Every structure is written in C-alpha cells, then in structure tokens.
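Morning F.,

Quick status update on the modeling queue. The single chain you submitted on Monday has been processed. Sequence for confirmation:
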Amino acid sequence: MKKFASVYVALAVSIVVLNSRAVASPTSVTFTGGAPSTVKSEKSVFLKASATFTISNSEYLVIDLSNISTNAAKVDGDILTAMFFDIAPTLANPLVTSSATVAPGNDIFGPMYFGNDTIVSGQWAYRGDLGGRGSQNAPEPYGISSTSFKKYFNLGDLFNDHQILNGTKPLNGVGFGLLDTVAVSPNAASDVQKADFIQNTIQLVLNDLPVNFSLTDISDVSFEFGTSFKSGSGTTIPGVLVGSIPEPSTIMLVAAGLLGVFTLIRSRARSR
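Structure tokens below.
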C-alpha cells in the first residue's frame, strides 16, 4: 500500500510541475511604461502608456492600447500614436488585421469629427515587417500606428482602408492618436487643437494566430508619442511586463494537484 501511495504522490507532483509550466502561457499580459517627454517645451511632462495583449478564441490577438498620462495635451509629443513589439520565434505566416475600435467607455474627441462611429479601422495601421532597424527608425518588427512616421505606414497598411471616416486624412499628423485621461490644454499648439483624438483607449484585433502561439512570445514592447522617432520630436518609452492572467483551467489543475499531494502525504503520515 505504501508503494502505491508513493506512486500516487509522484504522479500528483508531476501534475503540479507540468501545470505550473502551463501557467507560463497566460491568456492575457499587460505591459506599461512611463518616462519624461523628450520634447524641449514639455520636459516636465511625464508620459505613460499601457498595452494589454489577450488571446481570444485561440486565433485572435486582441490589443488594448491606452494613453494613461495625466497631462493636458499641448503638443504632438503628448499624443500616443503607436506601439511596437517583437514576437519570437518568428511567425511562419503573417498576422492579419481584423478591426480597430474605440474601446468601451471611451470616445472620439475633437472639433472636426461629429459622427458617432466607434470603428476606427480606417485610421489605424498595422505592419509586421518593419524589421526593427535602429533608434531612428521603427524599433521593432511589429507595429500599430495612427501616423505614417514618414511613410513607414501607408494607406495600404490600414486595418481597413474602406472604413476611413468621412472628412478625415488617415495617418496624417497626430489625428486619431490617443489623448491622455485629461483633455487638450487650452494653450495647445494649433495643430493639436484642430485634430480629433481617441480618449484614451483603442482596441485592435489581429487574427490568424498559430495554434502554438503563446503570449510569452511577445517582447520588446515600446510606446511612441508624437510623429517622429527622433528624440526631441517624439518620445519612445520601453514597456515593462507588469502582469499576466493564467488560464482558469490551469489554476484548477494546479490546485487539484497540490491538494492531492497534501492528502496523500497526510494519509501516509497517519498510517505510520
């Protein structure tokens, strides 16, 4: 009997170990970053952003991108316009754009846009072949953006070039970038006062994830404020992983394994 009990303990421990490894494959991860602006007139401004990546239905990568600064925007460099990231190992097939929408509870804010659409697939673009070519260029291979960054993103890269909002010019300046949680300063530069923004979260969906994709494959997240990669015009902020959510089934299995180990050890102790 003791021999069988030892086998059961070993099996239970194996379950715990295997499923503890599974916890490393979360269904949601969040990166955040913050830094002072590099724009000369905004040196006292602290910029902050976050991005949550979620796997949905095993094939969709959902990205919630937010400007979580608390400064009234004055210049282009106060607007969150892009996020870049890497995926390793490299995907065999490219991800495909699905949708870009204003996240629930957020809105389009500005003097020029008077509609009530929340779909902004014609205002944001995606590329997965940027290459990460240095500090003066796109920092990582994968990028989503509301501005062109000198033709890094073009109209053909839009999530849906048939959904451009009436009267708007996609990828032009900071329009439809992410405003912070405050608003536009009454002393803002004229191009900021004239632009429309999303306040302050957008949800972007990419699909065709491979079956073995894990969110732990995502790395080197960075946030871009402004319309230039050049320090002094724009600000690049590295993202830091701050949290992840494991699959509920994994948590249950780990708990069950631990309970089994405890029960068997306790029963063996009583039999002595």
